[in-house]
Each structure stands twice: as structure tokens, then as C-alpha cells.
Design goal:
2 copies of one chain form a homodimer.
Chain A (H helix, E strand, L loop, with lengths): L4 H8 L9 H8 L2 E6 L7 E4 H6 L7 E4 L4 E4 L7 H17 L13 E5 L5 E6 L3 H4 L3 E12 L2 E9 L10 E2 L2 E4 L6 H13 L3 H7 E12 L11 E12 L13 E8 H9 L5 H13 L11 H7 L13
Chain lengths: 320, 320
């Protein structure tokens, strides 16, 4: 059966809302432990209770409180990010040694940042482990498109069949996660070159920052590894209007092929559920900003707009 | 002191969030009665308790439950919108006769719709009374702009000094509320003509639907009448790129004057707090979509984007 656009958004923004059913929301929260660092009040992420049970928590490094359902990283208050990161790394190294978690088989050797209130950098952790702690992750997504009298066309990527996550699904023109220290624009210009062979000069001239898409994802089987892990995400969005003569080519093995799709082809492939869920939301956001989806032609218009700009219940990054 | 853009957004999106402080949010909710209609489970709005006390509730028409803090319009389940509307109108007529509420001095003779789950039209009520019940109201806002090698300029309206609400403040090029039966595009094309003398043919060619801005406003003194009333709002947004030769002129007495403002002039006037709050959020949304505000130059970027696309805790309209 064809999926509606709201179905696609819900696959991506799957964490419940307090306002929809307070009782259900509060009981759902009991499935998780809050992740905190010593000396900072903010909740930085959520670990499923089943994950908390499996970790071998190192004494003095960690405090696990089953009553308040809290996991606290016990570096001294005011410790350096480096000191906190070492504690996290010790824990994860032990989990790798014991082969505790499937998601860690996809170790990326990439460090993701964790921010406290006011955007304070608290620590960093290995990317593949981030969903175990349910921390907010940051990335960039860009849509390369061509527009002429015949209409609009989109450069759509198909993910490699051998990719660990969401193999063979459709993807935005380029996208990528932001490691510690990276800023959105710098990440975008790098990913455009690496994934879609878009020269820096072309990106600098043609790309426009057009907002941010946020959602709170509960990982399903397609994400690979354990299901039910949380992944609150922030995706900085760029539109890249290209000349008709500009041909996008894969640059690394992550993309199977690139093809210029018509608007109808994109719409149909969305309905068939062929897009990686968060890439579908990026296309939907493009459609809304460009007047392709309107209140008059999409019955779930408002719900879609609100859900792809979800206010995440965690401190988030600032870059200036 | 200069206001930040987030300050401006917070003036408009002033209702608290559960996630920021669950205890405060739940205790804040105790200041209100939920508005419901008989036979429908959904909360349609919130009335401050002080307003509930002042109304002369007509027996059999209304059920006021102080324990569950609920005000229910008691038309039979499955009643027609007309039957429900008559009950509401009787109540409001009595309030006008008794001069109970200041906001009703601004009686507009315009009916605003109230929707239930799935966008079902339940009833309508006089526009000026809508904040007494805290129902979601709908409108359109459009930004007329000119772009050339020298940059971007905006057609900014200054509200009439004698306007009841937000007199003398800066406003978008055109904007207006949507009465029962009106759809966003039809409302926008009408307001463009009425308020900014933009011919229908120019609007049809130049305007683009670019999204929706939503926020949950607690009315302050500048809105006129009682303060503390709730006003959850949905504003459908249009960008209208005009030729440099197109001059916008006021068409009715609501606008003092129109002038083409540079980007810097708009930014400075925002900081000085000269804009009607919700019109400020519409400009901010434009800045984000057009790459003027970015994650790199605005520290509150994410919080701003999420708050001006707030998911309202009420059923909302659909138009198809």
C-alpha cells in the first residue's frame, strides 16, 4: 500500500509526544535511563533499560541509579571534555572486547560531540555507539536540483547494496554526519565534494542554507543493529541549484549511482517507501519550502511541518 | 537593550513547554479550563480560570466542571456545526450585553472556525472572542521583496496608529485572518489585493507557498484587552518576489505606509522591538529559508526554527 508523506515522517519522528497522550508518554519514558554527566543537570540522551543492563559499568567512572533511572558519567564537575571522553572510551572499549552490542560492529573511528546547556562541549564518543546513549547527532543534507521550463528535477543517490545502514535505499544528493569540531557549512562543502563530486567553488556559488530538519527517531531494523535505540537528529539543510549541464557522479563506494529524477518520479518513489526515512523528510521539507506541497494539496501539511522541526528535549549545539 | 531574535520568538511563542520543566508546565496548566464540545474527546482550547469565572454560563448549553477544569459546549453529540455555533453565539451575546470582557469591545463581525480531530469543522465563533477560549486561529502572512545585485529589500508595512492591536508597529507586506470556509491561498490572494494593492494576476505569478509558522502565544498588553489569554496560531506563509518597478501602496486605513527596507534596516528594527511579534517571526522564517540566518551566524538557530514551527496540542484544519 502506498505510504502517505505523514507515514514517512512518522517513521523518522517516531518518539511519542507528551501532548498526544500524557499517560502513555510518561510510561514510555520508563523504558529508558537518562544519560547525564556529573555536575550538569541536563539530560543528554536516553539509554533503553535493556542496554543499561548489558553494559559493564566501570566503578567510579559511572553511577547507575535504578530508582531515578539515571546513568551518570562521574568525571569531577568541571572536568575537561578530554577526561569525560576517556571515561566513555574505556566503557566502549570493554563493550567491544566483550562483543556486547551489534551496533559496535560498525565501528566508524569518528567522534561525535555531546553538548550541554548553552552549547557547552562536554565530551565526544564514537559515532557507532551514539544510539546506545541516545544522544543528539548532527549532520548535513543537501538537495541538488535543476530547474527549467519543463519543471524541476532532482539529483537522487541510491545507496550502495553493501552499506551497513539502509542498503539500496534512495538518498539525498549528499549528506553526512558532523564530527566533533566540524561546523555545518564546512561539513556540507566537504560532503558535496566527497560524495557527489561537486567542486567547492560550485557549492560556494550555488548552495543556500535553508534551515534545519529535526526529529526524534526510534531505530528500526533498517538502521542495522539493535532496534529500539534512540536517535534524536539535527540535519542542517542546503539547496544546491545546479546548471543542467552539471552531471553528478559518485565519488566513493557509498553511492551506487546518481540519476536526475523528475518531480513525479521522486513523489512516486516516496510513496513506495524507497527512501531512507530521514532523506524522505529532507525531500518533503524541500517540497514545502518550494511551494510543491501546500496546505491545499496535502491534508497533513501542518502536522508534517511541525514534526520535521521537532524541538528536541536535549541541549543542542551552537556554532558561533 | 537590543533584543535577540530568540527574544522576539519567545514573545510570540510564550506558552511553556513540558520538556523544559514538567512540574512547572503541569502546574501552569492548572490556570486554565480545557474547552471541549460534547461527544468529542479533544481539547479545543484553554480558557484562563479568571475568564471562566466571569462568563455567565447558560444552563443546559454549557457544563463547567471545576474538578477536571473543563468547559463543555453541550450540544448533543453529532449536532450540526450550526447548533453548536448558536450556543456559542448566545453566550457571547450575553457577555457583550453585560460588557464582561474588554476584548469584545473590538467585535469584528468575522467568524473563526474551530476544528476537531481529522479537521472536522465543529463550530464557528466571533473572531474577537477567540482568545477567551484560546482556540487555534489561522491566518496568512506574505513577504513582498525585491532582489537585485545590490541585495534584497523588503516591502514593510507600518500599522496605523489608531489600530486596536499593536498600533504603529511594523508588519509584513500583507497578512490577515482566515474566516470560516476560507482556504489559505484564497485568503492570501485577497489580502494581497486588499492590504497591499497587489493585483491577483501579480500574486498568482509571483507568490510561492513556503510553509507554515506556528506558535503558542500568551497575549500581552500590546495585543489589547485582557492579558494572559491564549492564542495558538497558524500562519500560512507566502514569499512574493516583485519587480523593482512594482510599488506597494496602502489600500485601506489599517496600514500607515509602505516602504522598501534594506536587509540591515529590517534587522535593526527587529532588534529594537519595532515589529508586531508574530510578524517578526515571519521575517525570521524568511531569513532562515533564504540563507540570511545560518547556524554559523545565529547562536539560537535551532531553538528558533523549532519554536516557530511548534506542534500545537489541538486538532487543526485541513483544506483538501
Amino acid at each position: 500500500m502506498a505510504k502517505t508523506l505523514l507515514d514517512l515522517v512518522k517513521e523518522c519522528d517516531s518518539f511519542p509526544y507528551f501532548e498526544d497522550n500524557a499517560e502513555y508518554y510518561l510510561s514510555h519514558l520508563k523504558n529508558y535511563h537518562a544519560f547525564k554527566v556529573n555536575g550538569c543537570d541536563a539530560v543528554l540522551g536516553y539509554l533503553p533499560n535493556t542496554i543499561v543492563e548489558k553494559f559493564h559499568w566501570i566503578e567510579n567512572d559511572w553511577q547507575v541509579d535504578a530508582t531515578s533511572r539515571t546513568v551518570t558519567l562521574m568525571a569531577a564537575p568541571g572536568a575537561t571534555p578530554k577526561a569525560r571522553t576517556e571515561i566513555m572510551s574505556r566503557l566502549l572499549a570493554e563493550a567491544v572486547r566483550r562483543q556486547t552490542f551489534e551496533v559496535l560492529n560498525g565501528w566508524r573511528h569518528e567522534m561525535y560531540p555531546i553538548y550541554g546547556p548553552g552549547g557547552e562541549f562536554l565530551l565526544e564518543m564514537e559515532r557507532s555507539a551514539s544510539p546506545l546513549f541516545g544522544i543528539t547527532t548532527y549532520g548535513v543534507h543537501m538537495t541538488g536540483y535543476v530547474e527549467d521550463e519543463q519543471g524541476i528535477k532532482f539529483w537522487v543517490a541510491r545507496r550502495s547494496k553493501t552499506k551497513q545502514t539502509f542498503p539500496n535505499m534512495l538518498d539525498n544528493t549528499a549528506a553526512g554526519g558532523m564530527s566533533t569540531g566540524e561546523h555545518p557549512y564546512a561539513c556540507a562543502i566537504r560532503e558535496a565534494a566527497e560524495e557527489a563530486s561537486i567542486p567547492e567553488s560550485v557549492f560556494a556559488e550555488r548552495a543556500k542554507s535553508t534551515g534545519v530538519v529535526t526529529y526524534f527517531y526510534i531505530r528500526d531494523a533498517r538502521a542495522g543493529g539493535e532496534t529500539g535505540l534512540l536517535q534524536p537528529e539535527v540535519e542542517y539543510i542546503y539547496d544546491v541549484q545546479l546548471d543542467a549541464s552539471h552531471v553528478i557522479k559518485p565519488c566513493d563506494s557509498e553511492v551506487e549511482d546518481f540519476r536526475l529524477w523528475t518531480l513525479d518520479e521522486v513523489k512516486e518513489s516516496l510513496k513506495r517507501g524507497e527512501w531512507k526515512p530521514n532523506c524522505a523528510t529532507v525531500m518533503i521539507d524541500f517540497f514545502i519550502r518550494h511551494g510543491i506541497l501546500t496546505a491545499e494539496n496535502e491534508k497533513d501539511y501542518m502536522e508534517i511541518v511541525a514534526r520535521i522541526h521537532r524541538r528536541l528535549p536535549f541541549p543542542t549545539a551552537t556554532y558561533n
